[in-house]
Amino acid sequence: APSAVRPVPVTPPLASAKQFGPVVLEARDVRKKLGGRLVLDGVDLAVRRGEVCVLIGPSGSGKSTLLRCLNRLLTTDDGIVLLDGEPFGYRLNGGEPHSEPERRLAARRRRVGMVFQRFELFPYLTALDNVLLAPRHFGTVGGADAVAYGLELLRKVGMADHAHKFPHQLSGGQQQRVAIARALANEPEIVLFDEPTSALDPELVTEVLQVMTTLAAEGLTMVVVSHEMGFARRMADRVLFMDQGRIVEEGPPTQVFEAPENARTRRFLATIG
Ligand code: ADP
Ligand code: MG
Asked: Is the beta carbon of 3 within 6 A of some atom in ligand 1?
């Protein structure tokens, strides 16, 4: 009977249906000067477990610098970075600089994976040895187990058949997939991607985005600097627009792309089409 018909519940978009865990990586009021210029001018960012954040913004706005501060490749001049709620690396303590003890910092840095624009594979190591370098060095895997582990990671990115090739024998897209496998080898809690497809020929972009899409769908926590709008629209839980060292707008992709509030965001989106 019609009286039994209930209104169909509105299906929430996938992004909001996703359950996030606690904050994994956080920047609080981070400032960084480089070459006398304030490149990061008070950045606040908290990434929750399972969240995919896509960071966009004009060239020179500080995106790479922010990622390098987040994984402590760079120290910050002010503000703090926290990993799992604990100060990560250099910090100010009552006005005095303090560093996390070297060994502890090195161990925690391995929990933050990084993928670079130019892959940065070691040229004299095979794909497999690139992936296994860090886990072998830190003794997290050894012997025959290591090879099986490395092959499994390469399989994940569709590169198991190329395990014994050197970087120069691989296309850019293949090298980047190996670099992603390498970033996963320490079982990171979060992976930071710095324009992972912008050095690639257009026909090689898709294979890398497909790997990233799979990882995102599996629940990997990611911060991705990218202007790949298709990826951002489909996979981002949150899009952040950075300009002149600050995050000036953020929200779900539909909001930031279709109804940006900030004039600078609108101008930027018009330039990238
Ligand atoms: P994005 O990744 O958004 O293009 P970057 O973080 O690479 O921006 O750079 C932000 C600004 O910081 C740019 O103006 C750049 O020239 C400057 N910068 C980056 N690295 C250095 C450095 N090592 N010394 C001086 N200036 C730098
Ligand atoms: Mg950059």
From this structure: no
